[in-house]
């Protein structure tokens, strides 16, 4: 009896795996074809200086214009792209197109690009960044690369070398989604960061949870003491912005200012003091 149950369970499990593996294979084929067909596009979200309100940078956020499924967000394809290694080609595409776009912006507006841990580990990273800057003509000092804490868990000497090489080129490094991973304060001491991006989860509960407020206060204070810029992610309303301003958070990014939009909307995002959250 137990054996029969076991077999039944096993068979069920196997069928489930098959369906999932099948879906994965389809998505992988779709991803490869999409790269050939040029279906990927960098969207941009403005980042504002909290004190002056000026747009100081845009973060490039990848979108997939799928012919049948419409616009697909990164959460639905980046994990598989990372597993299959396709993220290297995708990352190369984002870097090139974003640097090319940013080279046409006013030169006091910077560009932030997300780097996958897979890209970061790739020995070709420095060459790839160098080429993107050379081809686009973008000044290295206008480029910020965003990495997450998971990068720091890996081989720390190689990581440190790569970070130093990038900074020697003039590129700045941001620690993305701070507070969500294996946040360790020793990272801030061991690795050369220019910016800490405080994860959206802390910002969203800023006005309603004392502990979120305390964490924001601690991180902005830490940034100030260490000479590191702090950026709050996911700012959706004026109450949050005001609290961040009071805590001395350097920069803010979120739907309050604008959702990520295509490159053709950058001029409008620069000109308008603020877009409605619902826009
Ligand atoms: P991230 O780098 O932390 O980017 C911020 C995410 O928060 C973006 O989601 C953005 O649209 C969203 N966001 C910004 N403001 C608000 C807000 O006020 N409210 C809410 N609810 N959300 C807000 P998106 O574009 O879906 O990207 C998700 C993640 O995918 C990114 O998180 C990043 O980790 C990854 N990603 C995006 N583009 C790339 C890329 O080109 N390369 C790599 N490796 N990863 C990317
Ligand atoms: Mg980011
Ligand atoms: Mg982030
Ligand atoms: Mg995030």
UniProtKB/TrEMBL annotation:
Name listed for the protein in its UniProt record: GGDEF domain-containing protein
Extent of the signal sequence: none
Domain EAL: 24-274
The organism's taxonomic lineage, starting at the top: Bacteria, Pseudomonadati, Pseudomonadota, Alphaproteobacteria, Hyphomicrobiales
